[in-house]
Amino acid sequence: MDVLYKASVTTTGGRDGYARSSDGLLDLPLATPKELGGAGGRATNPEQLFAAGYSACFIGALKFVAGQEGMEIPEDTNICAEVGIGQIPGGFGLDIDLYIHLPGLDQGAANALTEKAHQVCPYSNATRGNVEVRLQVSV
Description:
By secondary structure, this protein is an alpha+beta fold. The protein has 3 helices and 6 strands.
């Protein structure tokens, strides 16, 4: 693979720590959610960061495949990514739902575009075969 971009983030302290990118644009505290036995509070967590990354990247994949087909996705396209964590045999796993909203498109076209984006999105490729990702498409 010819790497086009590489992000670098250093984290200290784990789930109750701190994360900072090499360029300083990401610079934030982390906190374990109450549901996982932590204090919660006004800090983010790995699942929220993964959900933000996946949803943003998937919209990019939608734009890419739409462009290949000579079309554009609606400007108000949005994705709500829900990333859960739970125990699996031998450790922990993720549970992912992507709620993809493509307003103004025909349902069939939205479904087809979403399936194509799911094949090219790097997050989808990374999770495929490891984590079930459920795609919920609405128009």
